[in-house]
User: Which sequence fits this backbone?
């Protein structure tokens, strides 16, 4: 998956101390690993997926406007 929402997620996790590699809007292996790390750090379900719980948490932290319905 790729696009502006992925780039926003990368920017969010980068701003909270996680290294995502290039912020390029591509959901690759490093982005997946850093999302898992972000989830662990924030006591979320650790699955590497931006589902409802992670989306809600990211929205509260960064105001991304993720709906949590489109998992990536």
Assistant:
């Amino acid at each position: 998956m790729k696009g502006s929402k992925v780039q926003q997620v990368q920017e969010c996790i980068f701003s909270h101390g996680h290294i995502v590699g290039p912020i390029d809007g591509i959901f690759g292996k490093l982005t997946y690993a850093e999302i898992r790390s972000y989830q662990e750090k924030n006591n979320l379900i650790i699955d590497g997926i931006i589902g409802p719980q992670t989306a809600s948490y990211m929205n509260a932290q960064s105001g991304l406007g993720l709906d949590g319905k489109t998992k990536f």
